[in-house]
Amino acid sequence: MEIEKKRFRTMFPNLSQEMKYEHQRVGISSIRSDAPTGEKASSKTFDGYMPDIIDFIRRCDNEQQAVEIIEYLERRQEIGSAYAKKMKKQLKEKGVRSFGSKKQDDYYPREGIV
């Protein structure tokens, strides 16, 4: 479908603006007609990745939520008490953002997993 540039810019101003910038482009390496197979193949960035305590803390809005996560993982013995104590100390002294910026709900889709 051929469409002149001026008409395209009028119809799709935001898309037209985004297309100007190289850093926002995404390459297409292949085409698949089977959606589930395509989704599985395209989501290799976090394939087999298991989030750790830091990933969970980075989703927290405040220190209380982070403390709950630390205590929960300690109760389940997924982290040791010494590590939990170290995490709580960092949380108290430096705050929840000392573990990294907040991970938004769409973090994994934006970073490569669909």
Considering the chains and any ligands shown, give keywords for the structure.
7 helices, 114 residues
Molecular structure report:
The protein is mainly α and 114 residues long. It has two domains: 5-42, no CATH class; 53-111, no CATH class. 52% of the residues lie in helices and 0% in strands. The chain is built from seven helices and no strands.
SSE blueprint:
Layout: H1 5-11, H2 13-19, H3 35-42, H4 53-57, H5 63-75, H6 81-94, H7 107-111
Helix pairs in contact: 1-2, 5-6
Major β-sheet profile:
none
Number of helices: 7
What value does the Rg take, in angstroms? 21 Å
pLDDT averaged residue by residue: 77
List unreliable stretches of 5+ residues.
Answer: none
Number of individual domains: 2
**Amount of beta strand:** under 5%
* Alpha carbon gap, first and last residue: 29 Å
Question: What structural category do the secondary elements indicate?
Answer: mainly alpha
Please give the number of β-strands. Answer: 0
Helix-strand topology string:
HHHHHHH
Question: Can you summarize this structure?
Answer:
Helices cover 52% and strands 0% of the residues. The chain has helices at residues 5-11, 13-19, 35-42, 53-57, 63-75, 81-94, 107-111.
